[in-house]
What does this fold into?
Amino acid sequence: MLLFATTFSDILNYNLFSLGETSITPLRILYLILLTYGLFLVSGMFKNLLVGRILGQTSMPRGTRQAIGTVTRYIVLLIGFIVILQTVGIDLTALTLIGGAVGIGIGFGLQNIASNFISGLIILFERPIQVGDRIEANKVTGEVMAIGPRSTRIRTNDNVTIIIPNSKLVAENVVNWSYKNDMSRVRIPVTVDLESDIDKVKQLLIDAANENPDVESEPAPKVNMIKFDSAGIELELLVWSKERFHRPGALKSDLNYSIFEKFRSNKILVPTPDADAGTRTENSDLYLPEAETGEITKS
It folds into this structure.
């Protein structure tokens, strides 16, 4: 047993290689791994405590709290790793040569990782986007769930998580619907026949917007005329919403249902591809004009 213990001790203290005046042994490597693992656990717990309990008591926005927590964790990791190296007995001055080699490696083989990490720091400090924001980036639309050192996680309305490299968010155009504002404007295009009472149509659109509980009263709903030609009059209903901020498609659907019912009950004319024939589309209750006589027909 004593021989086994001696052999095991010799294995743990076997000099694998030297780093300056420091002997690198399996025992030191084991200490380094365990302490580093513990450092990541402690830093993560400290970040959650800082963001959830300490900063959570303030009126600070969620994205700002997350940014402060992430940057603080990076600082804790940096300081903690330096302390661990000294505790294990590794001379930091001996790492100068390795640091130079790592720098060359980053310059050639790890360009993307270094670029994404630096981009992540830029996002955290500059805060063009924050956790909780709704953004459009790289043909993806969704809510920012987390900003990590390499990538940012975005959750779409389909509950699908998309991972986008941080460098994409810095180098390319990003639409941030939440930037310094929690309210967004939704556009509803509508086309009616040239013979329609435009004032009545405008009022019906405004009524449809005002009757929807998710539409803000200030700024008030507005109707713009885009253009008019032989195909009809193109209008656009503009509304503002906070409640459906992360689901604009659902708000558009609700408004379209309401507009359709109001148009049908008020016999508002809507152009269709076969309007020249003076007929209406099959199973449609919307009235169409007779092309030659100007009379209104219906079945």
